[in-house]
Design brief:
The complex is a heterotrimer of chains A (about 290), B (about 525) and C (about 300).
Chain A (H helix, E strand, L loop, with lengths): L1 H21 L1 H23 L33 H37 L1 H15 L3 H12 L3 H28 L2 H8 L4 H37 L11 H10 L6 H28 L5
Helix pairs in contact in A: 1-10, 2-3, 2-10, 3-4, 3-6, 3-8, 3-9, 3-10, 4-6, 5-6, 6-8, 8-9, 8-10, 9-10
Chain B lengths: L1 H23 L1 E6 L14 H8 L6 E3 L5 E3 L2 E6 L5 E6 L12 H12 L17 H5 L10 E5 L2 E5 L7 H4 L10 H7 L15 E7 L3 E6 L13 E6 L3 H9 L14 H8 L3 E13 L8 H9 L3 H9 L4 E2 L25 H14 L8 E8 L2 H15 L3 E8 L1 H9 L5 E2 L1 E4 L6 H4 L15 H12 L3 H18 L2 E12 L4 E2 L15 E2 L1
Parallel strand pairs in B: 1-10, 13-14, 13-15
Antiparallel strand pairs in B: 2-3, 4-5, 5-7, 6-7, 8-9, 9-10, 11-16, 11-17, 12-17, 18-19
Helix pairs in contact in B: 9-11, 15-16
Chain C lengths: L1 H29 L15 H10 L6 H13 L14 H36 L4 H15 L2 H15 L13 H32 L1 H9 L3 H29 L3 H7 L5 H9 L3 H29 L1 H6 L1
Classes of the chains: A mainly alpha (about 290), B alpha+beta (about 525), C mainly alpha (about 300).
Chain lengths: ~290, ~525, ~300
């Protein structure tokens, strides 16, 4: 019986992956994201300028081919191309790690809470309520105090704030799943709670969770930029798309390249994550077969 | 027919008068933050000074070009030893018709110094006899050296001769508050329905975070020379948003100007873009206990390319600072001490700096690691990034550390830094407002205590002859510069956009522009 | 039905200790952050700082301060603001809340109606050209940060063209609120559109929809009555906490458009270490979240009767 189940699972996966690659938007997004990822990781290594190389004669100057300043320079005379790519490294890694933290903690927490129900659910959700009821700025500042001003802090801070949403959504889905026939029969058959959560609840909440994850990644990128705007983000000379965009907005009439290039990267990246997430959801959704 | 003509006639008259009223109009001024208070004894910022300064006045006040002129005092005499001042209070009224008397002033000085009121700026008045002791709750408030001899005569006794005292009396800490109103309403005396003022304007309406409306005060002693009918201040925090509102025609003047757009602003606004020297310095204190080698401190200072910073990084007319006290300040010699490398070319200075660093044991392969702290702001960041690039040449690896304002200032106060960014706006037009930062007090961020300097400063406080005093203060400044515990970088400029419809805005070093002198074309 | 009302009432009672815990934790935690309310660029001499601390009772034992604060709140006194000397915390929050709430309300409406509309249409025409265009459009509102969109809109519509005032509340009419509401609303519209689309697609494939279709009900009815109900669950989950955030305003919107409101106090209070103001915002926000949660639970009950029965 186990063997057949495994085969079923395998063929389900293969089927889903095939469907994912048939979706043109997902494929396009995957390609775009891979390109952005590759040039962000390798670009700064092969480009001639460092992210803190200063060109004193090219301060806040528009794009030019001299010195390979093809995106222009910022107000300190630094190459915007290298900085945009380096910023990509930071923005994307912050988003992915924070989302993974939120995913692991949130899904587990929400599934258990929703499935077990009763008092446990009440207490667990009460804890979520307490943390949720504290204003974001306040929580972030406390995390800064505890973890210091490292980039680690930003990953953790954002992950620790986002898991709450994930838990709530998963709990909501679990609550409605719980009332469905197949769960009730599994229970009646004597399958353990843990097994039910692992084999039936979690795969079935994947749909909205994946959708929510792709909403979270851009959200985290934007929150990180808001934090940078307030001075709580990455320290110089490191940068992120958020930092670049904040600087660029202030100067958009005199140095539009400072706003345009990082914004294009940010927006394209966010759109790509979203279309990809849609594709994944469509591909794995058992109900759309 | 006759009725018809009458109607036309009166309509014309009506319109004429309305136009006349509109022509003297209401000015709309950008202000950069919301006032936390409008009680003169509790305000702290430039943005509050603007609003409250249109409503209250001191014994002296500022003219249209920032010079000190008689305010509520019409004349005064100073004793031979310079420690006793007698003021004759002019014949003026509060906005409720009651006479302004010397008792109001005595009451006001006592109020701001009373420890239970916890006024943040009370320390400005410490030159007055017993002021500091009273503020420390060591002496009773009635021992203060401020006495009303009668309704129109006020006697002030100082601890030492204080050449800038008349200017200090124009500062908001010395403004008179109405004794009868404050005693009657206590904390609520500044509410719109209770407040009573001595200045050209009075509160008409205050909508927090939206605007602050002032209307003309007919009881003001000089109201016949006040041309405007009212003033509206807008607390706009974002300088780009403020500029956009100016361009949309909603403001006559701005409180500041966004940075990094100098060329564009000059081109777009021409003469309306007002830049003027400002009595303030931007500097990097070096922690004496963390960087003990004077060669390193000197090298750090020499490697800063002040010309590039003022012209290319900031480019708004700021002046490079090679001394600590700004040139042109009152009561000081025109030829003030300067850092010895001021006349060197930058390339030579860098070579010399490299040599010093090598002597101290640092070079590119064995760099000195320095943590540079600054508070969150685009401008601070630009300067810090530029300077860290400049220091790279001489074998310094800089770690940049930006923090929120409160944390930064707290660390400055507790000397928790190696090198940090700081700035100081002069409280009054005298060198001591800058040299006092190096006495044994909480402003001495570097924690460098030099007893000779302190002795000289104390001696200077007691000298009557102004020239001798200036020479002593020059010695004090030279000690500061010779120690290299501070890296002066540039002197500020004040920057505003002022519509050409505005008359009566004259650039001045204190950057004070009272609405009482203004008019609209 | 009675058991359901009792359930709601029980939840309400449970939220009182929640709020108390939030207040207590926040009270002590904010004082852990480095820097204090009186640290300024212009350093204060120690004697002045001591006077200030005494004035605000900050020199008393921390637990005494805590109990003083609690008894204060119970009497409606939320303390003076440390940074805004002329105002009490209650003054600041009560003055600013209506403005934030008005902008928040209209933004929420725009986000909800726009989002549900776009999401439903996309779900119906799934994977078509229409789907991609509508989703991209709604996503752009999400992807472009507020602090970029706002100045761009102001530049285009207020400075280059004189169509809207460049800032300020004015008389609170359409002209002054249109741009802030659009900026704020479009940021949330994208999320709602996507969530609606995703949930609608699932709901449209679900059993009871097939049953309804099989029964021969007209397509429109199928969609709007049955699918919508199930699809709304994740949307409501999303909206619950988000509405508290929208109602309490956005610092960025208020700063860039120059609007009064309480959004700025959340940031300024924390960054300025204005302890009482921070506590005020914590209580306001906490209270709104609790109310939002209760409303979400009530709506869940209507949308899925089986949950109601279980309780």
């Amino acid at each position: 019986m186990l063997k057949t189940k495994k085969n079923q699972f395998d063929s389900l996966n293969k089927d889903a992956i095939r469907r994912l690659f048939a979706n043109k938007a997902s494929v396009a997004s995957l390609i775009v994201l891979s390109i952005i990822l590759i040039i962000s990781v390798f670009g700064p290594m092969i480009l001639p300028n460092d992210l803190d190389t200063v060109y004193w004669d090219y301060i806040q100057s528009k794009p030019t081919t001299e010195n390979f300043l093809i995106f222009g320079t910022d107000s300190n005379g630094r190459d915007l191309l290298v900085r945009t790519l380096s910023g990509g490294r930071v923005s994307i890694s912050v988003a992915i790690i924070a989302t993974l933290v939120a995913l692991v903690v949130g899904v587990t927490y929400g599934a258990i809470s929703g499935y077990v129900g009763g008092r446990t659910d009440a207490v667990m959700m009460r804890i979520v309520d307490i943390i949720y009821a504290m204003p974001f700025m306040f929580v972030v500042i406390l995390l800064v105090v505890v973890f210091g001003r490292s980039i680690m802090m930003i990953y953790l801070a954002l992950g620790l704030v986002e898991w709450l949403d994930m838990a709530r959504i998963v709990r909501g889905q679990t609550l409605s799943l719980k009332t469905k026939e197949f769960i009730i029969s599994a229970n009646a058959l004597g399958v353990s709670n843990f097994s039910i959560i692992r084999k039936h609840i979690i795969p079935n909440v994947i749909g909205p969770v994946v959708v929510y994850m792709t909403l979270t990644i851009p959200k985290v990128i934007l929150i990180e930029s808001f934090l940078s705007f307030l001075g709580l983000g990455v320290q110089e000379p490191n940068t992120s798309w958020g930092v670049l965009i904040s600087e660029g907005t202030a100067l958009m009439e005199v140095a539009p390249w400072m706003l345009i290039y990082p914004s294009i990267f940010l927006v394209v990246c966010i759109l790509a994550f979203n279309f990809l997430g849609d594709g994944i959801r469509d591909a794995f959704d058992p109900k759309t077969r | 027919m006759a009725t018809f003509l009458k109607i036309i006639f009166f309509t014309i008259i009506f319109v004429m008068f309305n136009n006349y009223a509109v022509a003297s109009g209401i000015i709309h001024r950008g202000n950069n933050a919301e006032p936390a208070s409008i009680d003169p004894h509790f305000i702290t910022g430039v943005w509050e000074n603007r609003i409250v300064g249109d409503m209250f006045m001191g014994l002296t006040t500022e003219s249209v070009d920032g010079k000190i002129i008689p305010g509520l005092a019409e004349s005064w005499s100073i004793s031979e030893d310079g420690k006793t001042y007698i003021f004759k209070i002019r014949n003026a009224k509060w906005s409720d018709g009651k006479k302004i008397t010397a008792h109001d002033f005595e009451f006001s000085f006592k109020r701001i110094l009373a420890p239970k009121n916890a006024s943040k700026y009370a320390f400005i008045l410490y030159p007055i006899k017993n002021a500091e002791e009273i503020n420390r709750a060591q002496k009773d408030v009635n021992s203060l050296g401020v006495k009303a001899l009668n309704n129109s005569t006020l006697k002030i006794t100082l601890k030492n001769i204080t050449p800038f005292f008349l200017e200090q009396l124009a500062h908001y800490t010395s403004w008179a508050v109405p004794k009868h109103i404050v005693e009657k309403y206590g904390k609520n005396w500044t509410k719109k329905e209770n407040i009573v003022v001595s200045g050209a304007f009075i509160v008409e309406d205050w909508k927090p975070q939206t605007n602050f409306k002032l209307k003309k005060n007919p009881y003001f002693w000089d109201s016949k020379n006040v041309k405007l009918d009212g003033v509206v201040y807008y607390p706009i925090e974002n300088s780009n948003s403020e500029l956009k509102r100016y361009r949309a025609g909603e403001l006559h003047t701005t409180g500041t100007v966004p940075s990094g757009q100098f060329k564009y602003l000059k081109k777009t606004f021409g003469k309306s873009f007002r830049i003027a020297p400002y009595l303030a310095i931007y500097y990097y204190p070096v922690n004496y206990n963390k960087i003990k080698d004077i060669r390193v401190r000197k090298a750090l200072s020499m490697a800063v390319n002040r010309d590039v910073i003022t012209q290319k990084i900031l480019g708004e007319g700021q002046k490079p600072a090679y001394s600590f006290v700004p040139t042109g300040i009152n009561n000081y010699d025109a030829k003030t001490p300067q850092l010895p490398f001021a006349t060197m070319s930058y390339t030579d200075a860098v070579l010399e700096a490299k040599k010093l660093m090598q002597e101290a044991g640092y070079n590119k392969s064995n760099p000195l690691e320095i943590e540079l702290k600054y508070n969150t702001s685009d401008e601070q960041k630009k300067v810090a990034v530029a300077i860290s690039a400049m220091w790279k040449q001489i074998g310094v690896k800089t770690k940049l550390f930006n923090q929120e304002a409160k944390v930064h200032y707290s660390q400055l106060k507790n000397s928790e830094f190696q090198v940090a960014r700081a700035s100081w706006i002069g409280d009054y037009n005298d060198p001591t407002t800058f040299t006092n930062l190096f006495l044994d007090n909480s402003y001495n961020y570097s924690r460098w205590i030099d007893n000779t300097l302190i002795a000289n400063a104390e001696k200077a406080d007691r000298i009557i002859n102004l020239e001798e005093r200036a020479k002593l203060l020059a010695k004090v400044e030279k000690s500061i510069l010779d120690s290299y515990v501070t890296i002066p970088i540039y002197y500020y400029v004040s920057k505003h956009i002022v519509s050409d419809k505005v008359i009566g805005w004259k650039d001045n070093i204190l950057n004070i522009h009272r609405s009482r002198w203004m008019d609209l074309k | 039905m009675n058991t359901y009302l009792i359930f709601i009432f029980k939840r309400f009672l449970q939220s009182i200790p929640t709020l108390w815990l939030v207040i207590t934790i926040s009270f002590f935690m904010i004082r852990l952050a480095p820097g204090g309310p009186f640290d300024m660029e212009r350093q204060l001499p120690p004697v002045v700082e001591a006077n200030l601390k005494a004035y605000y009772n900050l020199d008393k034992n921390l637990f005494i301060q805590y109990f003083d604060y609690l008894s204060g709140i119970l009497q409606g006194d939320f303390g003076p603001s440390y940074n805004y000397r002329d105002f009490s915390v209650a003054d600041l929050i009560l003055d600013g809340l209506p403005y934030s709430a008005i902008v928040g309300f209209w933004s929420l409406l725009l986000a909800i109606f726009g989002g549900i509309l776009l999401g439903s249409i996309s779900a119906l025409y799934r994977n078509s050209y229409v789907d991609y265009t509508l989703m991209t459009f709604s996503m752009l509102g999400l992807a472009i940060p507020n602090f970029v969109l706002a100045p761009v809109l102001i530049l285009w519509l207020c400075v280059w063209n004189d169509w809207f005032p460049a800032g300020g509340w004015g008389d609170g009419g359409f002209a002054n609120l249109a741009l802030p509401v659009i900026t704020l609303g479009t940021a949330y519209m994208g999320n709602i559109a996507r969530t609606t689309r995703g949930a609608m697609i699932e709901a449209l494939g679900a059993n009871h929809i097939r049953t309804a279709r099989a029964k021969g009900l007209p397509e429109k009815l199928v969609v709007w009555r049955h699918a919508m109900k199930s699809a709304m669950i994740p949307v409501v989950s999303y909206l619950g906490p988000v509405s508290a955030g929208i109602i309490t305003g956005s610092l960025v919107i208020e700063q860039i458009f120059g609007l009064p409101g309480v959004g700025r106090y959340f940031v300024q209070g924390a960054l300025g270490r204005d302890y009482t103001l921070v506590m005020g915002t914590v209580i306001l926000y906490g209270g709104l979240i609790i109310i939002a949660n209760l409303i979400v639970d009530i709506i869940y009950g209507f949308l899925n009767p089986r949950i109601r029965e279980e309780k």
